[in-house]
């Protein structure tokens, strides 16, 4: 078997056979014909077989030479393809980007904006994992996380990826026929309310706004969910009032299957922010960040 340092001679041999003469190969490679001839002779001596038959009129290839030529050609073709693939990786970002986010953020922000990766960045694999609890993205091997507001841990960068979010208090017409329409947040005490429960078991206290003063209402009722979508669904089923992002129930409000109340008291919450460790941002994550932060109208 030829040693690794003889690959140059194998390459010269391949070029001589391809060009059909030492002279043509020398011209193509910009080398001296005598040097190429000597290299091929040394290659034949080392392998112990004759590869080429030299006559004054033409150059012919022996059976052993033909066999070697096919082997060498396929080997160099594979090398060329491998190098071309590296260039492709340099030009086309690839790899996996793993993001932790709520179902709401995945559905309304991440999926719509990242769907274009199917055509533009097919080598980037996206893992969008939904959990209601606050996750340590470093410990649990996420590249990035999404949360409402820009307040993130030490050493993290936060990038806004959606506008502020309008919250709405909604219920079914049947609910209001039974319990009446609340005129102020204080009236909520007589209404069954659907709760949002965090991963640690605590309930989200509804944050409302009364002439610039922040007030909270602790929902009392039969139902608690760890997902805004399920809160909205429970409200549609008439299980109580829900306080959810407007975009989750926009169609219901248009159709009249849900009715909004206490509009002047509703809060606008900070939009979604993508956060990630400030070091070691992969090319694939960099493209995700740039794509998500485009076109933010605050």
Automatic annotation (TrEMBL):
Keyword Transport: no
Keywords, comma-separated and alphabetical: DNA-binding, Transcription, Transcription regulation
Molecular function terms, GO-annotated: DNA-binding transcription factor activity; sequence-specific DNA binding
Pfam families in the record: HTH_1, LysR_substrate
Domain (HTH lysR-type) ranges: 5-62
Family: Belongs to the LysR transcriptional regulatory family.
Gene3D superfamilies registered for this protein in UniProt: 3.40.190.290, Winged helix-like DNA-binding domain superfamily/Winged helix DNA-binding domain
CDD domains: PBP2_CrgA_like_5 (cd08474)
Name of the featured protein: LysR family transcriptional regulator
Lineage top rank: taxon: Bacteria
């Amino acid at each position: 078997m030829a040693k690794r340092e003889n690959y140059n001679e194998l390459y010269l041999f391949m070029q001589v056979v391809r060009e059909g003469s030492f002279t043509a190969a020398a011209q193509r490679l910009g080398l001296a014909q005598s040097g190429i001839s000597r290299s091929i002779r040394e290659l034949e001596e080392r392998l112990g077989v004759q590869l080429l038959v030299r006559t004054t009129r033409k150059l012919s290839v022996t059976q052993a030479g033909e066999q070697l030529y096919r082997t060498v050609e396929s080997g160099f073709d594979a090398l060329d393809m491998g190098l071309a693939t590296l260039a492709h990786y340099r030009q086309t970002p690839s790899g996996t980007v793993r993001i932790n986010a709520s179902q709401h953020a995945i559905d309304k922000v991440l999926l719509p904006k990242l769907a274009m990766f199917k055509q533009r960045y097919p080598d980037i694999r996206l893992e969008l994992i939904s959990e209601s609890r606050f996750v340590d993205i470093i410990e649990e091997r996420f590249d990035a996380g999404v949360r409402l507001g820009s307040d993130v841990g030490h050493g993290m960068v936060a990038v806004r990826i959606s506008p502020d979010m309008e919250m709405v208090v909604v219920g079914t017409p049947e609910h209001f026929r039974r319990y009446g329409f609340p005129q102020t947040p204080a009236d909520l005490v007589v209404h069954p309310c659907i709760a949002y429960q965090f991963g640690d078991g605590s309930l989200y206290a509804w944050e409302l706004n009364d002439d610039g003063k922040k007030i909270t209402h602790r929902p009392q009722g039969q139902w608690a969910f760890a997902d805004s979508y399920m809160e909205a669904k429970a409200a549609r089923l008439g299980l109580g009032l829900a306080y959810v992002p407007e975009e989750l129930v926009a169609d219901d409000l248009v159709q009249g299957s849900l009715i909004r109340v206490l509009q002047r008291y509703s809060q606008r919450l900070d939009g979604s922010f993508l956060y990630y460790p400030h070091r070691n941002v992969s090319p694939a994550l960099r493209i995700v960040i740039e794509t998500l932060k485009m076109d933010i109208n605050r």
